[in-house]
Specification:
By secondary structure, the protein is mainly beta. Helix content is about 15%, strand content about 35%. It has one domain: Jelly Rolls.
Length: about 210
């Protein structure tokens, strides 16, 4: 007689990614396209010289929406106490990926929460790919799988869609796939840091 095995899966310590939409008007696109850019050190994309593009007056309402999404991430998803924690935008810049451009795997230093907002996209323009920080076994072993799922996958693809916003922990390693379209892919990336009262078992600290 076959014994039926009953069990539950507890998805502990998940990595949250906020997905939302922010519609950019023509003024935003015109402003971003008017910025000065430089080629990156790896010569795989263009980045704006300005590292505070969301601070421009044209971007005021959009910046406020992004601020609100960051707060939702911190105070509704992570459930940090607003009485003791505040969020501060520390940088924001524009990226342009020409056909054939891409971005290497990286995370964002000196920030707590990061994100990207897609302004100009097309099919096969280069999706965002995120990687898990460690393998299930603790070492880089990759077994064949009968099916990929949220527990055994080593990476996940987030589609680059116009007006889509993704917000994620700054420690999350990610890259951008090759732009295989014949159009330019434009986005705004941003970093936020949090400040406030930190708690340990015996002491209170301030960041």
């Amino acid at each position: 007689m076959e014994t039926k095995l009953n069990f539950n899966i507890l998805p502990l310590f998940s990595i949250p990614i906020v997905e939302c939409t922010l519609d950019a008007n023509d003024n935003v696109i015109e402003y971003i396209n008017s910025l000065q850019y430089k080629r990156t050190n790896l010569s795989n994309s263009y980045i704006s010289l300005s590292k505070n593009v969301l601070d421009n007056d044209i971007m005021y309402l959009y910046s406020k929406h992004i601020d609100d999404y960051i707060k939702k991430f911190l105070f509704e998803v992570m459930e940090y106490d607003q009485k003791f924690v505040t969020a501060e935008r520390v940088s924001s810049w524009a990226n342009k990926h020409l056909p054939g451009d891409w971005a290497q795997s990286h995370s964002h230093d000196n920030s707590f929460v990061s994100g990207v907002w897609y302004l100009e996209t097309s099919n096969n323009c280069g999706d965002l790919e995120v990687q898990i920080p460690y393998a299930f076994s603790g070492i880089p072993i990759n077994f064949e799988k009968s099916k990929n799922n949220q527990f055994n996958s080593r990476d996940c693809t987030l589609p680059a869609i116009r007006n889509k916003v993704y917000i994620f922990p700054s420690t999350l390693t990610h890259n951008v796939r090759i732009n295989k379209s014949n159009k330019v892919r434009t986005s705004i990336a941003f970093n936020y840091y949090i400040r406030g009262q930190l708690i340990s078992e015996s002491n209170l600290f301030y960041s």
